[in-house]
Structures are given as C-alpha cells and as structure tokens.
Amino acid sequence: METTTPLLAVDVSARYADGHDVLRRVRVTVERGEILGLVGQSGSGKSTLALAILGLLTAKSGKIAGSVQLMGRELMGLRPREMRELRGREIALVLQSPLSALNPALTIGAQLREAWMAHDPEKQHWLKQAREGLRSVSLPDTDDFLARRPSQISVGQGQRVLIAMATMHRPALLIADEPTSALDMITQAEILELFAKLNQAYGMAILYISHDLASVSTICHRIAILHDGEIVESGKTEELFRAARHPYTQQLLSSCPHILAEPPKEEDMDENLWPTAPAGVLQGALHSHTYHDCGR
Ligand SMILES: Nc1ncnc2c1ncn2[C@@H]1O[C@H](COP(=O)(O)OP(=O)(O)O)[C@@H](O)[C@H]1O
Ligand SMILES: [Mg+2]
Fold first, then answer.
1. Contact (CB, 8 A) for 277 and 181
2. Ligand positioned closest to the Cα atom of 43
3. Which residues contact 89 (CB under 8 A, 6 or more apart)?
4. Helix/strand/coil for 3
5. Region of poorest pLDDT, from 34-43, 166-175, 183-192, 275-284
6. 227 is a domain residue
7. Using CA atoms, how far apart are residues 91 and 23, in angstroms rounded to an integer?
8. What pLDDT is stored for residue 206 in this prediction?
9. Which are the contacts of 149, defined by CB distance < 8 A and separation ≥ 6?
10. Distance from the CA of 181 to the center of ligand 2, in angstroms?
11. Distance separating alpha carbons of residues 275 and 15, to the nearest angstrom
12. 237 within a domain of the structure (yes/no)
C-alpha cells in the first residue's frame, strides 16, 4: 500500500511580502528513486518552490499555503527545530555557486566534518564518512585533498564537495537548484553525469531545477514545466519531447531544435558540434567519457 505514496507530494501557493503571488497551486510529485526536472525561465518561481519544500520560505518573508508531504508526512507547520533535523538528513539542497557556498577559511575536511556532525555527533565516524563522501563524487579521498581550502580547488571540484556534503547522510531527496549554471560546458556535463550516478548508486531521488530544458533532458525521468508560478505541463521526458501540448513547452522546445531530432550518431560527434548541440554533447559526455577535474 505504502508504495503508492510518493516520496514527495507538493501542492503549494506562495506569496512574498510585497503581495506578489509567486506560486499558484503548484502540484509536483517526486517518486522514490526518480529524477524530476523542474524547468522554467528565470523568475518563474523555481527557487521559491525549493525554499517552500525546505521550510525556508518564511525566512525570506514569504507566505506559503498548501501542503508539502515527505513519504506521507506533512512538513508544513513543523517546528523550525524539526525542519532543521530533517534538512540535510532526509532532504538536502545543492545550490548554484560552489565557491561562495563553501567557507573560504576552512579546509575541505573541516567542512565535510561539519556536514557530517550536523546529524551525527559521534566524532569518530566523520573521517571515514568524509573519505567515502569524496569517493562517491569521484574526488580524491586523500589527506592532501582534505587539507585543501576552497581557493585551492577548481569550481567543478567545489561543486562536487558541496554535493558530497549534501549527500553524506544519504537523503531520500536531493534538491539541486541550478547546480551547473556557474560552470563551463564540460564541467556541467560532468556534474550532470555525477547526479545520474548518485541517483543510480543510492536510489536517491533528485528534484533537478534548471532553466535549461536541453541539459536536464539527459538525466531526468520526468519533467515539469513551471511558467509564471504555475505548472503548465509535466510528463515523462521522452513523451514531453515527442508530444508537448502546452504552447510554452513548445516554445521552450523550439528554442533548442536539435534535441527534437534523433540524438547525434557517435561518429558524427566532434568538437564542431559543441556550440550548437548541447544535448548531443551532454549525451556524449554521459555515455562515452569519464571526465576528471584537473585543478583549475
Ligand atoms: N524575497 C523576495 N521578495 C519578493 N519577491 C521575491 C523574493 N524572492 C524572489 N522574488 C520574486 O519571485 C519571483 C520568483 O523568483 P524565484 O523563485 O527566485 O524564481 P526562479 O528561481 O525561477 O528564477 C520573481 O519574480 C522574483 O523577483
Ligand atoms: Mg532560482
């Protein structure tokens, strides 16, 4: 019976203090182990939805109405302490700009330690968990790497560290809010590949937020389109690409026409495709290469 309860079921409206209705009856579900892409242009309300799910909206002077259920448990109305307990352990968040989200004064090891100890005060576990966390995001688990500071690693490595911190406690749901928009194309593809890997390895469900339909299509099982505070369409990725019904979705698709066509054949893929075929590039990156960050 309980298998029919989605991992996350959201039905919310949100308004900021200035009276602006930012989300209007936004209904979204995420199933266990699923990657749901939430796609919409800048200002459509994506980050507001993420904050609403995490119980952080009131902190930004917003008002929220409706329901946010995690495995059937209502989160709206939980005390701040209960929400803090849940954040990072059952639902985790990864944001856009890695280097500003890391503390420049602390080593990578110290930050992983903090992330671990936030939900497990047993000190002796942290180092093993920190190394395991680094390995899970394909970073070196060495003492040298743990001793580095954010200025001594690349932006892509910084994003991996943040993903390791967010996923150390193996949350059932990871919310990634435009996690690749500060990264170059190759690094974006690597990070997308990493999300797909974490999803497969740990069965971790991901709410993947992006303004870029082409890039999310490579890893998302389903996609929901948010337009001006409303979900205008949602469905399985390939169905949405094949038969988008809403004019706004059709408009988004037509701005990336190459992904309507068949994916490029392996032998046709070369450097020249890069500026015009991000989906092809990403598919190439996901299926044929293992990239490594080389400290930039
Ligand atoms: N703290 C706030 N107070 C008032 N309006 C806000 C606040 N934060 C965001 N907004 C407005 O809410 C709308 C949605 O913002 P946001 O959720 O950040 O969109 P997205 O993440 O899709 O770019 C925008 O019009 C934005 O200007
Ligand atoms: Mg945003």
1. no
2. 1
3. 119, 169, 171
4. helix
5. 275-284
6. yes
7. 21
8. 98
9. 104, 105, 106, 107, 108
10. 10
11. 39
12. yes
Asked if residue 158 belongs to a domain, the reply is yes
Distance 59 CA to ligand 1 centre (A): 14
Q: Collapsing DSSP states into helix, strand and coil, what is residue 231?
A: strand
Buried b (16+ CB within 10 A) or exposed e, 74-94: ebeeeeeeeeeebbbbbbbbb
Cα distance from N-terminal residue to C-terminal residue, the chain: 50
CA–CA separation, 149 and 111 (whole Å): 10
Note the pLDDT of residue 59. Answer: 58
Residue with CA nearest ligand 1 atom 7: 16
Q: What is the DSSP letter of 258?
A: G
**How many structural domains comprise the chain?**
1
pTM exceeds cut of 0.90: no
- CA of 54 from ligand 2 middle (Å) equals 14
The verdict on residue 295 lying in a domain is: no
Using CA positions, which residue lies closest to atom 5 of ligand 1? 16
Which residue's CA is minimally distant from atom 27 of ligand 1? Answer: 43
Domain containing 118 equals 29-56+71-288
Which of 12, 13, 15, 16 to probe ligand 1 with, by most ligand atoms within 8 A of CB?
16
Residues 6 or more apart whose CB falls under 8 angstroms from that of 95 comprise 101, 162, 177, 178, 179
Q: 45: Cβ below 6 Å to ligand 1?
A: yes
Could you tell me the CATH number of the domain that includes residue 201? 3.40.50.300
Q: Is the CB of 199 under 6 A from ligand 1?
A: no
- Find the helix packing angle between 108-117 and 155-167, rounded to 10°: 20
pLDDT digits (tens, 9 = 90+) for 13-49: 999 988 889 999 999 999 999 999 999 999 999 999 9
Residue located via tokens 């560290």: 161
How many residues are there in the chain?
296
